[in-house]
Amino acid sequence: MTESGPGTWPPAPMKTERLVLRESEGRDRAAFVELFSSPEVGTYVGGPRPREELERAMPEVPGRRPGLFVVELDGVMVGMITLDRRDAERPGHVRPDAGETELGYLFLPEAWGRGYAAEACAAALDWFADTLPGEPVVLCTRTGNDRAMRLAAKLGFTEVERFEEYGAEQWFGVWPSVTPSG
Ligand SMILES: CC(C)(COP(=O)(O)OP(=O)(O)OC[C@H]1O[C@@H](n2cnc3c(N)ncnc32)[C@H](O)[C@@H]1OP(=O)(O)O)[C@@H](O)C(=O)NCCC(=O)NCCS
Fold first, then answer.
1. Which end of the chain is more exposed for a tag (fewer CB within 10 A), N or C?
2. What is the number of the ligand 1 atom nearest to the C-alpha of 112?
3. CATH of the domain at 102
4. What is the Å distance from ligand 1's center to 18 Cα?
């Protein structure tokens, strides 16, 4: 993704078999608060944040920025997917000039275990491949995060390296699996 995000942002809402991926809206606010305050969601991603603080500080329309998809099931937000530029200072690169696009996913625990994250991420990756053909997408997750690791493998990410960060072992992978070299 470019500095300001892909030129086509926001794309029209994308429908999958069961879900819709779209830009965030004001009606998603409660789900965003839930997502960031959930201890289960926060286990491997920096821990939950206090609900009161989120209620106070969360913008009226949270998460409205290029690369952030709200994932909706039957009209209600169940998770979010991000395609962001990875900080060049962080470990893990597949391009000499860094600046890779990184996939992130956070879903509400009620929606886990039904393949929704996999279905939505596949659609987001398809969209990205159409928008910026040939650009790799990277992904970093703690090796202890079983669900995130299984999802990465299911989506077709392959391991580039592992390293220590934030006091834990991290898995760093790339999609598609053939890494363009520069
Ligand atoms: C990571 C996360 C998105 C994975 O969610 P998930 O629901 O486990 O992922 P999937 O969409 O791939 O669903 C997989 C499960 O759905 C099951 N499933 C049920 N119905 C299904 C269907 N119709 N199609 C596909 N899978 C289905 C699969 O069998 C699988 O179960 P299993 O993992 O117990 O074997 C979720 O756990 C999460 O939000 N975690 C907290 C945030 C986080 O850590 N993010 C990663 C940061 S790097």
1. C
2. 7
3. 3.40.630.30
4. 15
